[in-house]
Amino acid sequence: MASVDSEPVVEIRDVDVIRGQAHLLRRVDWTVRADQRWVLLGPNGAGKTTLLQLASAQMHPSSGEVRILGETMGAVDVFELRPRIGLTSAAIAQRISAAERVGDVVVSAGYAVVGRWRERYDVHDLTRAAMLMQQWGVAPMAHRPFGTLSEGERKRTQIARALMTDPELLLLDEPGAGLDLAGREDLVSRLTDLARDAYAPAQVLVTHHVEEIPPGYTHALLLREGEVLAAGPVGDVLTAPLLSEAFALPLTVQRQDGRFTARRSG
Ligand SMILES: Nc1ncnc2c1ncn2[C@@H]1O[C@H](COP(=O)(O)OP(=O)(O)OP(=O)(O)O)[C@@H](O)[C@H]1O
Ligand SMILES: [Mg+2]
């Protein structure tokens, strides 16, 4: 996938995020372009979720510049910007009511994010929600309360919801967490289809496991203690020396049929 000509959707320039004494991010530079799919890796506490908070217009930097979808943070109404960004995370999942029906969780996305509420949804919205539930394998449980779903079904429901507003940028914070092997493979396969869809939004996936990286992901960013250790094409970044440095552990890394595996070496 050529990336030089596609437009930037996230531009982070010399950004620091400081909370009290804690330096969450330090001198971060990162550009995501429309046709790129990025994986974000790093140990617990490295700053991955903080970086997604910046990229989703949920947080302002302490210093530096953040531009999202051509708009500069601080000079744009974030409530206008947020519907153009799809975000899934454990924190967002916790805010979904256990009693809400799956179909409503998905279709209400466009209404919730703009702070509107209507008793009836447009036919267009219902059609789109049905298509997304089909695509993410949750159509059979459309009438079930969200609280009755398995972890894998919840994760897929959230992604369908995040795609409901037809976002230009999709940010997924650990969508593979808590899934069993079959659930993980199912998710990787669906994310691979999305990664390869030329009409799909730019994608950023946070994960702790290289096994969860869908083939078709083009770029990787390694974070360590709030700093970018490496960023660029997956083949250049997901190497044994760089991953070993990121996780402070000697690792062997293999790539087969587009899938990665990593284990301790020696
Ligand atoms: N408001 C805050 N004040 C102080 N420290 C904070 C604050 N918010 C987050 N942190 C710290 O910033 C660091 C980065 O947090 P972040 O959630 O971005 O990490 P992460 O890479 O997503 O980690 P994980 O893999 O565990 O999800 C952590 O050490 C966290 O405790
Ligand atoms: Mg996190």
What can be said about the biggest beta sheet? 6 strands, mixed
**Ions and ligands:** adenosine-5'-triphosphate, magnesium ion
**Please, what is the average pLDDT?**
93
Q: Which strand-content bin applies to the residues?
A: 25-35%
How many strand units? 12
Q: Encode the helix/strand succession as letters.
A: EEEHEEHEHHHHHEHEEEHHEE
The tally of domains stands at: 1
The CATH topology assignment is Rossmann fold
- The tally of helices reads 10
The separation of the N and C termini measures: 36 Å
CATH superfamily: P-loop containing nucleotide triphosphate hydrolases
Residue runs with pLDDT of under 50 for 5 or more positions: none
Strand order, sheet with most strands: 6-7-8-3-9-10
Class by SSE composition: alpha/beta
General form: globular
Description:
With 266 residues, the chain is α/β, with parallel strands linked by helices. It has one domain (8-264): Rossmann fold (3-Layer(aba) Sandwich), CATH 3.40.50.300. The chain has helices spanning 48-55, 78-81, 90-94, 102-107, 109-113, 123-135, 151-163, 181-196, 234-237, 240-247; strands spanning 8-19, 22-33, 37-41, 63-68, 71-72, 85-88, 169-173, 202-206, 219-224, 227-233, 251-256, 259-264. The strands form 3 sheets. Strands 6-7-8-3-9-10 form a 6-stranded mixed β-sheet, with helices on both faces. A 4-stranded antiparallel β-sheet has the order 2-1-4-5, with helices on one face. Strand 4 and strand 5 form a beta hairpin. The protein binds adenosine-5'-triphosphate and magnesium ion. Residues 19-20, 22, 24, 42, 44-50 line the site of adenosine-5'-triphosphate.
